[in-house]
Amino acid sequence: MKQLRIGMIGYGFMGRAHSNAYKRLNDFFPVEHRPVLKAVSGRDAAKAQQFASNWGYERVETDWRKLVEAPDIDLIDIGSPNDTHCEIAIAAAQHGKIICCEKPLAMDVAEGEKMVAAVEKAGVPNMVWFNYRRVPAIALARQIVDEGRVGRPFHYRATYLQDWTISTDVPQGGAALWRLDVNIAGSGVTGDLLAHSIDTAMWLNGPITRVVARTETFVKERVHAVSGKVEPVGIDDACMFLAEFANGSLGTFESTRYARGRKNFNTFEMNGADGSVYFDLEDPEHLQYFEYKQLQSGKKAESHLTGWRKIHVTNSEHPYMNRYWVPGTTIGYEHTFLNALADFVAGIESGKPAQPDFREALKTQLVCDAVLASAHSSQWMDTGLEAEPCATSADAT
Ligand code: SOE
């Protein structure tokens, strides 16, 4: 097997999620490459060393540049905070590395464009870890849309709710809470949570062309973990926006970290003339589907048996599930990263790159930037995206 030597930048939540995918890839997927966990880099040497021992990395660096320049590394994984993505990705591309970058792609569109230019100039394979596309039930939703079972789309409705920042005692900044520091994260729920919802929405329902948004910062000051001082909070704690899709359908998106009781409530519903699909990440192995069939006879299409069906997405016929266990047994959050990596590596091997690459992820960044600009100006904003030729299930990955 060909080695795929990994240099992991960052040892937080995403460093773990991505490392798990590299470790388990060959256990489940028949690809030609074998990931080798070569080195991890992080600012805190002791924590990086602990991470390396836990996950089996061969060595540790405290400067990410050492990984990017290392001749024994093929793939740079960017799992570090958002403000580092651009510089690391550009340097990695210049050194000819394959790049897998955590979402969101960048702090803003300007950075994202530089990253796209760098990977395209270098011709290196690249991917952004929008892992939720690889939830089998979400991939099944895409298949159902591609099969024309939803029909002409009218509505797309997404929510992404959490509740972990309600307490005013939660500090901002530092290794654990950089997502609350606007200088490191770029934005709040818009880049962190809605980026997922937007990526999934555009994958299922095509480009978003216009948005109007309202954001709110409920807790306006928090202690900063690094300075120790009370500082203004610059992130959006909550964001709601209306969207117009290029296909003529309308969307609503809501995200917050202040929905008491909601831990990772990532849902969407799509309603079309011929059917609807509904998904909730807190019930991840189910996809709900409503089928409307116009009868040839012209008789009433709905009957006493009409209703939503709850599909348990665990059969070998369902996306990714033939790689795992027997029907009725489930997979979890970590497998979404494994599925994403498998598609990415298979794409490198077949010469048909898997999506989303940096260019595709830039579209989500365009929508995020338009949402934030709209919240600022209270005006509808164009995203700059236009209708695309219809995708088919052949390029669904
Ligand atoms: C935020 O709490 C977070 O960890 C996001 O950063 C991830 O992308 C999301 O999948 C889970 O929630």
Protein architecture, described:
- By secondary structure, the protein is an alpha/beta fold.
- It has helices at residues 13-28, 45-55, 64-69, 85-94, 109-122, 136-146, 174-177, 182-185, 189-205, 333-350, 358-377; strands at residues 2-9, 33-41, 59-61, 75-78, 98-101, 126-128, 153-161, 208-216, 221-223, 230-232, 238-245, 250-256, 265-272, 275-280, 286-291, 309-312, 381-382.
- The strands form 3 sheets. It has a 9-stranded mixed beta sheet with strand order 16-15-14-13-7-12-11-8-17.
- Helix 1 packs across helix 10 and helix 6 (136-146) runs parallel beside helix 9.
- The longest helix is centred in the C-terminal third of the chain and has 20 residues, at 358-377.
- It is globular and about 70 Å long.
- The two termini are 24 Å apart.
- Residues 392-397 have low confidence and may be disordered.
- The site of alpha-L-sorbopyranose has 4 residues, from loops.
- Alpha-L-sorbopyranose binds at residues 13, 162, 192, 264.
Largest sheet: 9 strands, mixed
- Overall form: globular
Average per-residue pLDDT, rounded, comes to: 96
β content, as a range? 15-25%
Low-confidence parts: 392-397
The computed structural class is alpha/beta
Strand order of the largest sheet: 16-15-14-13-7-12-11-8-17
Task: Work out the radius of gyration.
Answer: 21 Å
What compounds sit in this structure? alpha-L-sorbopyranose
The count of DSSP E runs of length 2 or more, i.e. the number of strands, is 17
Question: Number of helical runs?
Answer: 11
Helical content class: 25-40%
Instruction: Tell me the span between the first and last alpha carbons.
Output: 24 Å
